[in-house]
Amino acid sequence: MLSSEVIKRIRAIFLHQEPSVSIADAAIFLGWPVPRITRAITGGDIETISIGSYRVVPTAETRCEGNGTVAARHDREGARP
Questions:
Q1: What is the chain's percent helix, strand, coil content, to nearest 5?
Q2: DSSP 8-state class, residue 8
Q3: Domain housing 20
Q4: Range with top average pLDDT, 17-26, 51-60, 65-74
């Protein structure tokens, strides 16, 4: 069974209606510390886009993909937390 914290994060991801989120919010959605998402972005595992002078994460990057969530794929590939 999933913990209530994981359930809250999943619910937040799918209820989020905007096409993008801040890098900090994407980290919260994925349950990662900011340094981990920064490494994932630098490594090309998570895409960012520019909106004005800001870098944001498309909401789709935090949702399920064909090979699982970004978090699950990152964990399978041995990324450090």
A1: 50, 15, 35
A2: H
A3: 4-76
A4: 51-60
Residue for token pair 């520019």? 50
CA pair distance 77, 8, nearest whole angstrom: 25
Q: With respect to residue 81, please indicate whether it lies within any of the assigned structural domains.
A: no
Identify whether 44 is part of a domain: yes
Q: Does the pTM of the predicted model rise above 0.85? A: no
**Would 31 be classed as within a structural domain?**
yes
pLDDT higher at 2 or 80: 2
**How much is the pLDDT for 63?**
72
Give me the residue label for tokens 């990152």: 74
The number of distinct structural domains making up the chain is: 1
